[in-house]
Backbone:
């Protein structure tokens, strides 16, 4: 079962990243439930969920911000809260840059996704 969780396709994407990219909130929830079943440690959750990247160094938050996927963004935050990794989430993800040098907030602004940027900003300032 953990092989499904950890496996990557050619582009370097995990099932987690693919679900975020396609806006499949239900699949993200199923993968989250699987992670809990596997009893991943906080470190494993951080490394394999929040910090997993595709070949262009985009994390799930970059993907949600770039595509304006509010539902995905909200679900990611719910998971961070549930796992008590909000500080880790922000310390490692908020200002992270992909290969093009852009952070999730910059991607949201570039894409005209003001609601995404506002949510990111609100979470940062909570």
Residues:
């Amino acid at each position: 079962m953990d092989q499904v969780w950890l496996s990557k396709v050619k582009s370097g994407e995990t099932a987690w990243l693919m679900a975020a990219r396609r806006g499949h909130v239900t699949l993200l929830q199923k993968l989250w439930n699987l992670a809990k079943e596997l009893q991943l440690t906080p470190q494993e959750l951080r490394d394999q969920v929040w910090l997993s990247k595709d070949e262009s160094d985009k994390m799930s938050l970059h993907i949600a911000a770039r595509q304006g996927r509010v539902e995905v963004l909200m679900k990611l935050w719910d998971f961070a809260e549930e796992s008590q990794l909000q500080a880790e989430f922000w310390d490692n993800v908020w200002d992270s840059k992909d290969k093009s040098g852009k952070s999730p907030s910059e991607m949201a602004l570039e894409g005209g996704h003001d609601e995404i940027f506002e949510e990111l900003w609100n979470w940062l300032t909570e």
Summary: The CA atoms of residues 83 and 108 lie 25 Å apart.
